[in-house]
Amino acid sequence: MRTQRTPMSIDEFHALPRHYAWKHEYWDGTAHIRPRELAVVAALPLAHTPQSPRRPLQ
């Protein structure tokens, strides 16, 4: 996604709703909103479950 450039006052910029995945900057009377250059990698450990002895179904 490209940077969104919107002319606005500094008060309007401070009133904008924020989202952690977007970078919000303001200069020269324009708000510059773009996706953050951040990659998050998460690894979850696999849960170890003990094996129960197999029994025939009745």
General description of the model:
By secondary structure, this protein is mainly beta. It has a domain at 4-35. Helices cover 10% and strands 28% of the residues. It is built from one helix and three strands, in the order βαββ. Strands 1-3-2 form a three-stranded antiparallel sheet, with no helix packed on it. It is rod-shaped. The chain starts with a strand and ends in a 23-residue tail after the last strand. The model has no long low-confidence stretch (mean pLDDT 82).
**From the helix content, strand content and strand pairing, which structural class follows?**
mainly beta
Helices and strands, in N-to-C order? Answer: EHEE
Number of helices: 1
Radius of gyration: 25 Å
Number of strands: 3
The proportion of residues forming helix, as a percent range, comes to 10-25%
> What's the mean pLDDT score?
82
The description of the largest β-sheet is: 3 strands, antiparallel
Tell the overall outline. rod-shaped
Low-confidence stretches: none
Proportion of beta-strand residues: 25-35%
Measure the end-to-end span.
Answer: 58 Å
Spatial strand arrangement across the major sheet: 1-3-2
Tags for this model:
mainly beta; 58 residues; single chain; 3 strands
Compile the SSE list and pairings.
Layout lengths: L3 E4 L2 H6 L6 E6 L2 E6 L23
Antiparallel strand pairs: 1-3, 2-3
